[in-house]
Amino acid sequence: MIAWLNDPGNWTAPGGIFDQLWSHLQYALIALVVAAALALPVGLLIGHAGRGRWLVTVANAVRALPVVGLLILLYVMLAPHIHGRGDTVYLLPTEIVLILLAIPPILASTVAGVENVDPAVRDAAAGMGMRGGQVVRRVELPNALPLVFSGVRSATLQVIATATVAAYLGLGGLGRFVYDGQASQNFAERDAGALLVALLAVAADLVLALAQRYTVSRGVSGRFPRRTLVGDPVATADAPPSTHTA
Amino acid sequence: MPLHDSLLAQDSSPFGMFGYFSDHRDEVLNWLWYHTWLSAVPVVAGLLIALPLGWVARRYRWTYPPLVTTAGLLYTIPSIALFVAMPDIIGTQILDPINVAVALTVYSVALLVRVVADGLGAVPEDVAQAATAMGLTRRQRLLKVELPLAVPVIAAGVRVAVVANVSLVAVAGTIGVPNLGQLFTTGFQLSVGSPYYPPITLGIVLCVLLALALDLLVVGGTRLATPWRRAVSGS
Amino acid sequence: MIRFESVSKKYPDGTLAVDRLELVAPSGEITVLVGPSGCGKTTSLRMINRMIEPTSGRIWLDDRDTATVPTHELRRGIGYVIQHAGLFPHRTVVDNITTVPELLGTDKKQARRRALELMERVGLPAHFAKRYPAQLSGGQQQRVGVARALAADPPVMLMDEPFSAVDPVVRAQLQNEFLRLQGELGKTIVFVTHDIDEAIKLGDRVAVLQVGGHLAQLAPPAELLSDPADTFVAGFVGRDRGYRALGFAEAGLLPVRKEHAVRLGSGRGEAHDAAEDGWVLVTDAEDRPQGWLRTDRLAEAEPTGPVTAPELNLGGTLASETATLREALDSALSSPSGRGVIVDGAGRLLGTVTASEVLTRIEQQRAAADPPFTGDVGPGGAESEAS
């Protein structure tokens, strides 16, 4: 496997590692962007209004569908209607499945994130004269961000891992090496493909962790410099008055 | 994979799955049996491993970050990768179902370690203190107070693991491991030219039913194990 | 001025939270709504800024019917302080305070300057500006909550149990500072509490509400104590209301007698000579009373040594020369020597007074005034004018 990975030809050749890595990333990104664009606003709305929670239940029920079965079903259904060029015939069912896979974690955690915002904080926001949209954007979203990120990260892991199966249909991506290696008994190629998917997933998670660090307010994440928490003039402001007893 | 010409002559719509089932009854039931076994056993095994690990992560706080991070990393490995790599790791044959069972056990452990640790930690501090004040030993406290109170949290994790496993087992079908996933590959191969739905829809329906049944089993077990929750929500 | 005009609130489940409430909260005054839980006090408060919509009736803000103003506009003009402060966890202290000015489109620099000024006013050091709410204690969070409500300088403030989530010592301190602040700002305040002591301490007028949203009595605190409207109010204001009513009557010139005190560090012989009835008062170098010393303890230690602080009995309270009868009486009752210590504005010893002398003064006032003790002095220095 190491030898296979060390061969520069395997990286740069057409259909080599660079190409498939890029394809894999593309499939995952498209699915995640579409899923987030759907699940995030809907999740914020459900959490804010406190209604429509059944949508989360429905989305969660989708998780019980077997991914491979759904993928093949969609392919078989759509293939006769897609004609002509390129990978569309494989890409469309793959993206649909990946989007369906990514929506539940993002939706559920966004709703939970908004619902977890301290009721006193929402009350204060409305009481100060924020409109509904302002409460969502200025208060609920920033406070729900840690959970939103946890949903997006979990969706990303699942999407990257599952995009591998797309190669079974005939689509590109790192799954190509796994299935081709398996078929041609080239186990070095197969295992290298598996390793690359895992590495890609870890790398994507790291990028998201970094993004989370820079977008979530310290007041929410609780990452404060130690010294500000103890032993400073804070105490004196609330100290009992020293007068009035003898 | 036996390909009978007579098959293609039958109803190829999604509803042909009933006919398909009666024609391939023994084979399909066999696959269903394998699928059930492969979905359930790894979760049980994973839970048995995750319980002590989660306890350690809670009891010795410094072990929490490395344990949970490692578990998170294991979870990033795509299932198909783990299925194909498992023979190299444990020295089995590639199509041996044991591979899938071990691989899924790894996932279940990865998922449940954190759940167990967080569940045990979710016991309210005053409850834990009251238990100590009443003279329970550390072990009694764990078995009589912390573990029972953590059951709902752990059960939620087990439900996720079991439902995810049903889908993951089917993935193993695409590389030839016998289970309901075979129905999908069969359908895929029979759909060259024109769509042939019966095995595909049959596979999806059976997988969903299996996931539902296992989920209900966990929910029922949790209700039995936590009578105090029924008392509150019971109406 | 806030005026409730036959305001009712009925919830869909049939609960009548507020029943035809008629109430006026005069400008520049603190009107306290007090009552047991379920009396509709919070509902009444939240109907003012329409966080809850009344089922019937009108609420007037000066000459505007609140129902005719868009809610967000109405609320931006009303300060709102709630029990757990409800600070935005993701924003720093200064960003929390500038929230409403920001919504109103105030210049950012100007809003920040005002925020820093307000922080000083509510007793928060300037270096807290960049902190997050999670880095503050409960009392400090509540100070930020008050500053945030004041940021756009609204004429009206609604306060819903703002001090009930902090410990008693901090609560007393926040109450005192709140009264000082109100003395400077003169806002129209509606204040909700379940604590009758807090109501009596803070209110210019106190509205006692009964379960079911029925107004039992609306009166200045002293009148509430001296003349409860019915048995519910009498029961609610509590048993020792006769004693507490003394807190609204100025003691006036008490017959203060000279007390022979010694300073810390004086010789024990000197202390022995100054003692009267077995007790001697000890002061510091500036004549501020520090505590009482028993003469038989003087003999226990070395007879030639100085008087030291650890020996002192600290049981007695101090009353100032402008004290109320309650403070004067408490000073006498709490003093181990039976002599209550009276000090001047700077805390220096003026002399002592006994409990019977204070009681005589109470009898005199009772004879001179009818009805007795209808508070001629507001609580703790809120000398705001009714309008």
Mean pLDDT of chain B: 86
The CATH top-level class label of the largest domain in chain C: Alpha Beta
Percent of residues in helices of chain B: over 70%
> Can you write the helix and strand succession of chain B as a string?
HHHHHHHHHHH
Number of domains of chain B: 1
At CATH level 3, the topology of chain B is MetI-like fold
| CATH superfamily (homologous) name of chain B | MetI-like
Q: Briefly note the structural class of the backbone of chain C.
A: alpha/beta
Specify the biggest β-sheet of chain C.
6 strands, mixed
Given the structure, what is the number of helices of chain B? 11
Helix segment tally of chain C: 15
Give me the Rg of chain C, rounded. 25 Å
DSSP, total strands of chain B = 0
> Any guess at the CATH architecture of the largest domain in chain C?
3-Layer(aba) Sandwich
What general outline of chain C do the C-alpha atoms trace? globular
Q: Helix proportion of residues of chain C, in percent?
A: 25-40%
CATH class of chain B: Mainly Alpha
Could you characterize the architecture of this molecule?
The complex is a heterotrimer of chains A (246), B (235) and C (387). Helix content of chain A is 74%, strand content 0%. With 246 residues, chain A is mainly alpha-helical. Chain A has one domain (14-237): MetI-like fold (Orthogonal Bundle). In chain A, helix 3 packs antiparallel against helix 8 (132-163), helix 4 (54-62) packs across helix 6 and helix 5 packs across helix 6. The radius of gyration of chain A is 24 Å and the shape is globular. Chain A starts with a helix and ends in a 9-residue tail after the last helix. Mean pLDDT of chain A is 86; it is low at 227-246. Chain B has a single domain, classed as MetI-like (MetI-like fold, Orthogonal Bundle). Chain B contains 11 helices and no strands. The radius of gyration of chain B is 22 Å and the shape is elongated. Chain B starts with a helix and ends with a helix. Mean pLDDT of chain B is 86; it is low at 1-9. With 387 residues, chain C is α/β, with parallel strands linked by helices. Chain C folds into 2 domains: 2-248, Rossmann fold (3-Layer(aba) Sandwich), CATH 3.40.50.300; 261-367, CBS-domain, CATH 3.10.580. Chain C contains 15 helices and 16 strands. A 6-stranded mixed sheet of chain C has the order 6-7-8-3-9-10, sandwiched between helices. Chain C has a 4-stranded antiparallel sheet with strand order 2-1-4-5, covered by helices on one side. In chain C, 45% of the residues are buried. Residues 372-387 of chain C have low confidence and may be disordered. At the A-C interface, helix 7, helix 8 and helix 12 of A face helix 2, helix 4, helix 6, helix 7 and strand 13 of C.
